[in-house]
Design a protein that fits this description.
Helix content: over 70%
Distance between the termini: 70 Å
Keywords: Cell membrane, Membrane, Transmembrane, Transmembrane helix
Membrane topology: Multi-pass membrane protein
Pfam family, one: Gly_transporter
Number of strands: 0
Protein name: Trimeric intracellular cation channel family protein
Number of domains: 1
Mean pLDDT: 87
Shape: globular
Low-confidence stretches: none
Largest sheet: none
Organism: Gordonia sesuvii
Oligomer: single chain
Strand content: under 5%
Structural class: mainly alpha
């Protein structure tokens, strides 16, 4: 039950981020709702496609799409308020990322894949919606930009579930909670302290003789 609630929160927050980007790009109502909904459920759809779950859960069941679409509509009408609540949205986004990463890995474990594959599926679940959002909006995917830590926390959280769920006898919920705390905590710490991965050093300009 808790995982379902957090998953719905994650869908709503990711949908809000997509809808806000649509507002910034001056999309119309349909475009904003489309980008928001795809951002909210895109990671789960990609997860199910990779795992061969057809039709994807987000299409088979109506709540995920409805949550994402309604959130996008709320952003359409009240987007100035969301801009003021940016810090709160980032916190919820961190929680959503952690839940998506670990739940994606857990579903992969249930499908009998290896720990390595389950980790990658968890990562894809967490970042897939954001990649689709940026591609639709003609933006360089945030995943590839030198921004705050995002993919690394998702990868670590998914790895906790994948390795723990396959190679230990502890209940999977233990690893779901642990992995979510690891991913969300590292993401929030990265935001608080400005942690980033290093970029490639640029060559020094040669002095004119």
């Amino acid at each position: 039950m808790l995982q379902e609630i957090l998953n719905d929160v994650g869908i709503a927050v990711f949908a809000a981020s997509g809808a806000l980007l649509g507002v910034r790009k001056d999309f119309d109502l349909w475009g904003i709702v489309t980008v928001g909904a795809l951002t909210g459920v895109g990671g789960g759809i990609l997860r199910d496609v990779v795992l061969g779950i057809t039709p994807p859960t987000s299409i088979q069941n109506w709540p995920p799409i409805v949550i994402a679409a309604v959130t996008s509509l709320v952003v359409f009408f009240f987007h100035p308020t969301f801009a003021l609540l940016r810090r709160s949205v980032l916190i919820f986004d961190a929680v959503g990322m952690g839940v998506f990463a670990t739940s994606g890995a857990a579903i992969a474990v249930d499908q009998g894949v290896s720990a390595f594959a389950a980790t990658l599926v968890g990562l894809l679940t967490a970042v897939g919606g954001g990649i689709l959002r940026d591609v639709m909006a003609n933006e360089i995917p945030l995943l590839l930009q030198p921004a705050d830590l995002y993919a690394v926390p998702a990868l670590l959280g998914a790895a906790v579930v994948a390795v723990g769920g396959i190679h230990t006898s502890a209940p999977i919920w233990v690893w779901l909670v642990t992995g979510t705390i690891v991913a969300t905590g590292l993401r929030i710490a990265g935001l608080a302290f400005g942690w980033r991965l290093p970029t490639a050093p640029r060559p020094r300009a040669r002095r004119q003789s």
